[in-house]
Design a protein that fits this description.
Helix content: under 10%
Order of helices and strands: EEEHEEHEEEEEEEEHEEEEEEHEEEEEE
Strand order of the largest sheet: 9-8-7-6-15-14-13-12-11-10
CATH topology of the largest domain: AttH-like fold
Shape: globular
CATH class of the largest domain: Mainly Beta
CATH superfamily of the largest domain: AttH-like domain
Length: 415
């Protein structure tokens, strides 16, 4: 349903649907709020039903129908709470292009996924860094996590960011095009390509789900926090090939996610998890302590989103981090080798336990735009145990448990 704001004393409604006869129809209605009769004017809507083809064929004027729709007053609060404002499908991916990022900012494009046939985990990480002092540059790395073998990680760059750079991957770098583009690697919503000394990759990316806003959507759009995180493609599929030291690793429908980070730099401490719990359930968690001096001594904030069959929980994207007026925030503590998060909202409680095995993780040095350093301990073969409970009366009753072994993607950042 599309709802137009109040204009010229009326609110318009527009619903387009396909009926059981297979034809498309449009239901149009309006109401005219007035103080003389507030209840009736807000709950009674004149409406018109017409074939959708009238929009395209003004010569065709099928009879359609007219009527009067009455809402029950007690349904008004739930109806109002269900409103959603239209937004671009690319809103979570927009962020800065290569030429738009500001000085003192870090922009990250990363992809993590697992080949279900072999159990191999992959991590492709791309950064645009505009230091506080110095020239901007791009760099990154690629990592492969094979079962029963030590992970392999190889870097590319750094490359300076001139006005017109050329890429060894084919042609010039389009600075205004969304995504990451450097002489060594390309990362967009549709493809991943790149090369290092040990690794080359050429992958196609597909995803048909809505963006997953780990941090509050407004914080991402307005950059209200020192750093923000979003997952434009939370249930992505990867097809193509990766070569490790010349050995071909073919991929077909590998599962994972494309994500974005933008901000002043990395957190003081942080932990992160992405886990495909089953075919239609994905969990994204970030718990972090801000790197700003005034916020560094506060407890970690937790940003958690659980998507089940297309629906996100907690319902509010601010709920896990802020609670209700500060009460009921989710709790977490970034640490190695195991970290946990727990919280409850909307009659459900979740407990997440993440373990990064020592033999399946890498330690990567991070450098912020201001020159400070951190170490990220990452594993694309992590373990995650997730327990979801539902409140029944005064007790919590088990609702669902997931035990993910060797296919969770997780990291812990320390200083």
């Amino acid at each position: 349903m599309l709802i137009a704001p109040l204009s010229q004393g009326r609110i318009d409604y527009h619903v387009r649907f396909t009926a059981l006869d297979g034809h498309e129809y449009v239901l149009e209605g309006h109401k005219s709020p007035t103080w003389r009769s507030p209840r009736r004017s807000m709950t009674v809507l004149p409406l018109r039903l017409r074939p959708a083809q009238e929009e395209d064929d003004r010569e065709s004027r099928s009879a359609g129908g007219q009527g009067l729709l009455r809402f029950r007053l007690r349904t008004l609060p739930s109806f109002a709470a269900s409103w959603r404002f239209p937004r671009s499908a690319e809103s979570a991916e927009s962020a800065e292009t290569l030429t738009a990022a500001r000085r003192g900012r870090l922009n990250v494009w990363y992809s993590t996924f697992t080949d279900s046939n072999t159990g191999i985990g992959f991590w492709f990480h791309h950064e645009l860094v505009r230091p506080v002092s110095g020239a901007p540059y791009t760099h990154g790395w690629a990592a492969v996590y094979q079962p029963d073998r030590s992970p392999v990680i190889d870097r590319f760059g750094p490359h300076s960011l001139p006005g017109s750079a050329s890429s060894s991957l084919g042609g010039s770098i389009p600075p205004q095009r969304p995504g990451f583009h450097s002489p060594s690697a390309i990362a967009t919503a549709h493809e991943l390509r790149g090369e290092t000394e040990q690794l080359t990759w050429d992958l196609k990316v597909s995803a048909d789900c809505a963006p997953l806003h780990t941090f509050p959507r407004l914080a991402w759009k307005r950059r209200l926090l020192p750093a923000v995180h979003a997952v434009p493609q939370a249930q992505a599929r990867y097809t193509g090939s990766v070569r490790l030291d010349g050995k071909l690793l073919p991929l077909a429908d590998a599962r994972g996610a494309n994500a974005r980070i933008a901000g002043r730099g990395n957190a003081h401490h942080w932990a992160w998890l992405h886990a495909d719990l089953d075919d239609d359930t994905v969990l994204e968690v970030v718990t972090a302590v801000s790197g700003l001096p005034l916020l560094r001594h506060l407890p970690p904030l937790v940003f958690l989103r659980l998507r089940r069959a297309g629906r996100d929980w907690p319902r509010g994207d601010w709920r896990s981090s802020l609670g209700v007026m500060g009460v009921g925030r989710f709790r977490g503590r970034p640490q190695l080798p195991t970290w946990t998060v727990q919280g409850h909202a909307g009659g459900r409680r979740i407990t997440v336990r993440v373990h990064l095995p020592e033999g399946s993780r890498t330690a990567v040095a991070y450098t912020d735009p201001d020159g400070s350093r951190a170490v990220c301990h990452n594993s694309e073969r992590a373990d995650a145990h997730v327990r979801l409970e539902q409140r029944r009366g005064m007790r919590w009753q088990p609702e669902r448990t997931w035990d993910v072994r060797g296919t969770a993607h997780a990291e812990v950042g320390l200083r």
